[in-house]
Design a protein that fits this description.
The chain contains 2 helices and 4 strands, in the order ββαβαβ. With 90 residues, it is an alpha/beta fold. The longest helix has 12 residues. It is globular and about 50 Å long. The chain starts with 12 loop residues before the first strand and ends in a 5-residue tail after the last strand.
């Protein structure tokens, strides 16, 4: 028998936003690049919204490819925020 484990203490994702957005509440009416519904980036985005008491129907969750695609969409101004792997943190 083989077991697989992980010693991460948190999800390896962050939500980054364009300049001028200082809180999750400020994403109301704006777009967040996540990933397909039910994937870890989508779940992180939804959990962040719930924690901020911002209903998910108050933002547009966009299914945008992988981490690099979501980060590029944020840098290019296509979306207002993006959930990406924490390796993209400045």
């Amino acid at each position: 028998m083989k077991l697989l484990g992980c010693n991460w203490h948190a999800a390896p994702y962050v939500m980054l936003a364009r300049p001028g957005i200082g809180s999750i509440e400020e994403l109301r009416g704006k777009s967040i690049a996540a990933s397909s519904p039910g994937t870890p980036p989508d779940m992180v985005a939804r959990a962040a919204l719930v924690a901020a008491k911002l209903p998910p129907d108050q933002v547009k969750l966009a299914a945008v490819g992988g981490d690099r695609d979501r980060f590029t969409a944020l840098l290019g101004g296509v979306v207002d925020a993006a959930v990406v792997s924490n390796e993209y943190m400045p």
